[in-house]
């Protein structure tokens, strides 16, 4: 019997050792045992190699501002597991989280007893999200896909609106080694009659998406054709931008996020919310949604003296986007705390560091997939020309970075969302 927060977290953690196992059967069976709560409300599914969480949070904020009760599922979390399960832009309360885990555990354990199999960590959190949202009587769920799409546990839901933010060569051991193969996995979140909001895609990926949508009666709403970024300019703390949606133009919006790539995410998010309502949006509601928008761990300032910025960039494209966004913080010598997962294309991730890093400190988070910081340091030294230090923990890395920068220097943390989360937790 699960009665406390620690017991709930421990129950979820007991599923970590089951790894990554693509497939829908386990999630489908447990949800069926629970009465298929994921069928009680419409779902917007969001996949892509970069920008999923930012786009998901933007969509949820705009739907909430339009008067709907919105459940939001994102992953991974930065600090506390409840962050994955949002209700109207706030994390689930501790009490609701504990009750939701207790409810799901009964059926997950029954499934294990019957089948001899167990849900993975991501599968049990996906079931938890869908069941929790039904218990909260939501109007719509906005759900971030974990990996790929077609065989991701979240894809048990029939999405009315699907989103592909973009496609990079990532998780090639699972999703395929070409843009086309990865696109075929991601576009698998669409169903006949659904609407697909399509972010910028490589030509090979776009061809696969176009063919799939044509064969399955999926309507495409495409960035660069149906959706466009109008005039934009940097503003204090973000951007002033006009977005050309599929139904209307939304002039002079203030987006309180750093990074020009967030303008693309906003454009795609507006397209998704328009598609959900099948009409133009209320401009005041869009402005209200953006005014309160936060995306923790994405070029987020957690300290001013010294300046410390954390970013969840975890692949080459994400690193390049972070590098391009640093102008917003002025001309600075950046001390970089860098840590990554060992299954990433780390060499390609290091290359963008050469354009701004004055010093690199490698480290490792407490995660089984974390790359060895000594090997990371050797790789950084081989690729870029700057001093490199090695630390065994994020606490040691942060202390050393502060020694290098002093009170008025600048520290950038990037390479992994897990790293961003560990550093962020030290600032309350």
Report on this structure:
- Helix content is 39%, strand content 19%.
- It has helices at residues 5-13, 25-33, 52-65, 94-115, 121-135, 172-175, 179-186, 203-215, 261-277, 283-291, 316-325, 346-350, 373-383, 394-405, 417-424; strands at residues 43-47, 70-73, 85-87, 90-91, 140-144, 161-164, 195-198, 219-222, 228-235, 238-244, 249-255, 300-303, 307-310, 334-338, 357-362, 388-390, 410-414.
- Helix 4 (94-115) packs across helix 5 (121-135).
- An eight-stranded mixed sheet has the order 4-3-2-5-1-6-7-8, sandwiched between helices. Strands 12-13-17-14-15-16 form a six-stranded mixed sheet. Strands 9-10-11 form a three-stranded antiparallel sheet.
- Strand 7 (195-198), helix 8 (203-215) and strand 8 form a beta-alpha-beta unit.
- It contains 15 helices and 17 strands.
């Amino acid at each position: 019997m699960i009665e406390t927060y620690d017991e709930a977290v421990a129950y979820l953690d007991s599923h970590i050792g089951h790894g990554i196992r693509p497939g829908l059967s386990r999630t489908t069976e447990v949800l069926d045992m629970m009465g298929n709560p994921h069928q009680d409300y419409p779902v917007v599914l969001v996949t892509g190699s970069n920008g999923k969480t930012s786009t998901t949070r933007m969509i949820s904020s705009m739907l909430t501002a339009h008067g709907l009760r919105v459940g939001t599922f994102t992953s991974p979390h930065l600090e506390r597991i409840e962050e994955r399960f949002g209700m109207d832009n706030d994390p689930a309360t501790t009490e609701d989280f504990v009750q939701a885990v207790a409810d799901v555990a009964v059926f997950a354990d029954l499934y294990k007893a019957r089948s001899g199999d167990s849900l993975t960590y991501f599968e049990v959190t996906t079931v938890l999200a869908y069941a929790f949202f039904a218990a909260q009587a939501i109007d719509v769920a906005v759900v971030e896909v974990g990996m790929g799409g077609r065989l991701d546990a979240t894809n048990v839901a029939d999405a009315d609106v699907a989103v592909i933010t973009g496609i990079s060569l990532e998780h090639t051991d699972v999703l395929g080694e070409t843009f086309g193969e990865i696109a075929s996995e991601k576009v698998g979140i669409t169903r006949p009659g659904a609407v697909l909001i399509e972010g910028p895609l490589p030509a090979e990926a776009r061809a696969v998406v176009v063919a799939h949508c044509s064969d399955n009666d999926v309507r495409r709403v495409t960035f660069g054709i149906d959706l466009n970024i109008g005039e934009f300019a940097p503003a204090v703390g973000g951007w002033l931008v006009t977005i050309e949606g599929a139904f209307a133009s939304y002039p002079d919006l203030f987006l309180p996020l750093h990074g020009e790539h967030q303008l693309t995410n906003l454009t795609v998010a507006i397209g998704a919310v328009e598609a959900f309502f099948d009409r133009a949006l209320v401009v005041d509601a869009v402005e209200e949604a953006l005014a309160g928008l936060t995306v923790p761990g994405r070029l987020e300032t957690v300290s001013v003296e010294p300046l410390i910025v954390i970013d969840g960039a975890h692949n080459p494209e994400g690193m390049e986007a972070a590098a391009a966004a640093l102008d917003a913080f002025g001309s600075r010598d950046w001390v970089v705390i860098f840590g990554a997962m060992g299954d990433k294309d780390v060499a390609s991730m290091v290359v963008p560091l050469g354009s701004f890093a004055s010093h690199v400190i490698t480290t490792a988070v407490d995660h089984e997939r974390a790359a060895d910081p000594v090997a990371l340091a050797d790789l950084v030294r081989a690729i870029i020309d700057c001093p490199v230090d090695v630390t065994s923990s994020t606490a040691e890395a942060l202390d050393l970075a502060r020694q290098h920068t002093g009170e008025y220097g600048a520290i950038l943390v990037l390479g992994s969302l897990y790293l961003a989360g560990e550093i962020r937790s030290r600032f309350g």
